[in-house]
Amino acid sequence: MNTPVPADWYLLLSAALFTMGVIGFLSKRSLITVFMSIELMLNAVNLSFVTFAHEWHAVKGQIFVFFVMMVAAAEAAVGLAIIIAIFRVRGTLTVDQIDRMKL
Amino acid sequence: MNEPMLFLPLIALFPFAGFLLNGLFGSRLPKAIVSTIALLFPLLSFAVVARAAWMVHGGMLLPVAESGAPTWIAVGGFHVGFQFVLDQLSLVMLLVVTGVGFLIHLYSVGYMEHEQGYWRYFAYLNLFLFFMTVLVLAGNYLLMFVGWEGVGLASYLLIGFYIDRKSAGDAGKKAFVVNRVGDFGFLIGMFLLIANFGTLNFHRIGTQLAGHPAISGATATLICLCLILGATGKSAQIPLYIWLPDAMEGPTPVSALIHAATMVTAGVYMIARTHALFDLSPTAMMVVAVVGTATAFFAATVAMVQTDIKRVLAYSTISQLGYMFLGCGVGAYSAAVFHLMTHAFFKALLFLAAGSVIHGLSGEQDMRRMGGLRKAMPVTFWTMTAAVLAISGFFPFAGFFSKDAILAAAFQHGTLGKALWTVGLITALLTSFYMFRLWYLTFLGESRGAAHQDGHGDGHAAHAHESPWIMLLPLVVLALLSVTGGWIGIERFAGFLEPVTGQAAMVDAGHTELFLSVLAVLVAALGWFLAHLFFGRDGEAAAQAAQSLAPIRRLLQGKYWIDEIYTALIVRPVQWLARFVLGWLGEWTLVRGSAWLMSGVVGLSGELLRRWQSGNLRSYAAWLAAGAAALLLFALAGTLLGLNGFADSIHWAVR
Question: Is residue A103 one of the residues assigned to a domain?
Fold first, then answer.
């Protein structure tokens, strides 16, 4: 079985992952889960980038992926710090209860 | 041949400098310096005019237009400059304005001595002189209009000079508003001139008219009628004369300068200045003549029953201006200007003498409380006598020559002219009658101050005093002018003005004219005789006559109720409309309505947007997702529908 997996499949997987991310982003109540959904969406995009880079033999897409991963790492560091700070002040991470827009 | 230097702008700028100095610093200066400034600058101005007159006498050719006048408006081919022109007509006017003007300034120094706001008075007076000289010197309609409006402003300020009196303020406003009606006509006339001639320059319009004598009569008539409306406003003719009697609220020298000698003659001056247009329109000329005659007669009848000495003179001024209009209307422009000049002398004198009487009686203006002042105020009496004889038209006083010239011209002006002449002659009778009535009531007989005791002691005449020399000097000078002013004769005067006013259709037969002159003097004598009958001895006859003619007397004392009619027909509806427009439309609809609308829209949208900014993270997330989805749909739709530009940019972005 040496036939390569068609690009469409990767794209469909990417779209599915992205949709799951969006749904989680919108529907989950825990801030941590929302945060994870964002990561999921980012990686879905990464997947489609890599797919196109492979398909069109363009290295640009792969470079983009590195950028996204880097930004995502920074975002994760800052985001988790914010989440911890919020938890310390509010004692909860339920999204619906964090609506004051200030600490 | 180099152009002679006339320094024309200085004539106007000197009084303006006086206005600036007194207006800016006058309140901090002592009275002596204020009056020095106020007298010096008009005198300088008069000196420049006199120098110009001397050069004209020495053979300088007129007209002289100042070269290098700055441009005011230049739009396409249309050009208006600050150009001053001196010709025979404006020279005569300038001599009258600055000469009589200076005398009245001199008189004012004495008359206004004890008044509040001394500096303010002289600043206004100089301002008036500035605008009046601009009006007279202007080389085009627009610059003339500047002076025209400016003298209106100065007149408004001076009528309302006694700021603590409401009636004075009201009179000032009335004068201003009524004049605005006339100015509207003047403005429309100017617009029509621009449309038809493309210029407002007197000289160029004159040349164009001379080049194309066939300019349509209807156009000329329309322009002239508009200009006539302007002239009736300024020169207090029917239907816009109503402001002048009320203008007597101002200080008496102001009445002498502005409302007798100079400003009110601006309308006559304007018609004489633009006579080339009027010559094209017999209809307009007829209107001028009829309006003038009607005004002359009408005002003279009202003057017969007035009891306020200044109001008699005010109606007399209106009446005399009517004569000038009659002169213009029958094409005798030089006669009209002649009468303008002599009238400036004797009417200024009448007002100043009346002012002297009022001054001597500490502010009394009612003739019924005067009488017997001949002994107490001899100089005032004799100068006033000269003026009364002049205005009544007795030979050889100034008024005889000029009034006679106008009436003679009217008499030779066809059937209509004959009718107008008849009315003019009757008016001359009335004039003589009411002037001698004033004379008898004021100076002769016994003092009647005591007869009307109403709380403030015995009569004024008991301690009436003659005015100081500074007030008497102008009286004497003007009296001399009132006697001799006419001796130059209409023929020579008309000959001098001929380059400006054109050939006067004058005087063929000596017999007719002699007959007319004798008739005029007889009529004047009859007026004197009637006045003597009624008022000369004891006033019994006057009382009886008043009894038997009660309805007519009431009509005259009510001044034909013109003011009331105007109030009901025009003022009230306008006020009502203004209240509606301002109150309902302006205040409630526009101002408050727009404020409410704006605050309502802002409040409502704030209310809606506030809900959007809930602070709920998940709603923000939802909006974010929705926005992304919308963009995606938009791009997709663009691609599918083949909107090329948009699709290309999407492709470019993807690639």
Answer: no
pLDDT top residue among B143 and B514: B143
CATH of the domain at A42: 1.10.287.3510
Please check whether residue B81 is in contact with residue B202, taking contact to mean a CB–CB distance below 8 angstroms. no
Q: How many CB atoms lie within 10 A of CB B493?
A: 23
Using a CB–CB cutoff of 8 Å, tell me whether A8 touches chain B. Answer: no
| Structural contact between residues B165 and B250, judged by C-beta atoms closer than 8 angstroms | no
Backbone angles phi and psi of B308, in degrees to 5: -80, 125
Among the partner-chain residues B614, B617, B625, the one whose CB lies closest to the CB of A95 is B617
Establish if A60 belongs to a structural domain. Answer: yes
Please work out, in degrees rounded to the nearest 5, the angle formed at the alpha carbon of residue B79 by the alpha carbons of B74 and B81.
95
**Pick among B614, B616, B620, B654 to test the A interface (most A CBs inside 10 A):** B616
Contact B446, B457 (CB under 8 A): no
Q: Which structural domain range is residue A60 located in?
A: 7-97
B636 contact A CB<8A: no
Closest alpha carbon to B239 in B562, B560, B492: B562
* Burial label, B245 (beta-carbon count in 10 A; 0-12, 13-18, 19+): buried
Q: How many domains does chain A have?
A: 1
Binding-face residues of A in 57-86 toward B, CB within 8 A: none
- Asked if residue A2 is part of any domain, the answer here is no
* pTM of the predicted structure, to 2 decimals: 0.78
**Residue B557: its pLDDT value, please?**
79
- Check if the beta carbon of residue B96 is closer than 8 Å to that of residue B261: yes
pLDDT tens, residue by residue, B271-299: 999 888 888 888 899 999 999 999 999 99
How many Cα atoms within 13 Å fall on the side-chain side of residue B472? 12
CB of B614 within 8 Å of any CB in chain A? yes
C-alpha to C-alpha distance for B119 and B109, rounded to whole angstroms: 11
pLDDT, tens digit only, all 103 positions of chain A: 578 888 889 999 999 999 999 999 888 889 899 999 999 999 999 999 999 999 888 898 999 999 999 999 999 999 999 999 989 988 888 888 887 766 5
Q: Are B618 and A96 in contact (CB < 8 Å)?
A: yes
Residue A102 lies in a domain: no
Helix axes A7-27, B617-641, angle to 10 degrees: 150
Lookup: tokens for B254 = 């102001």
Supply B360's token pair: 């001597």
Q: Average pLDDT in the B147-151 region?
A: 94
Closest CA to B504 of B322, B638, B338: B338
Better pLDDT: B214 or B444: B444
Whole-number mean pLDDT of chain B?
Answer: 86
Supply the ipTM of this predicted assembly. 0.81
Count of C-beta atoms within a 10 Å radius of residue B646: 15
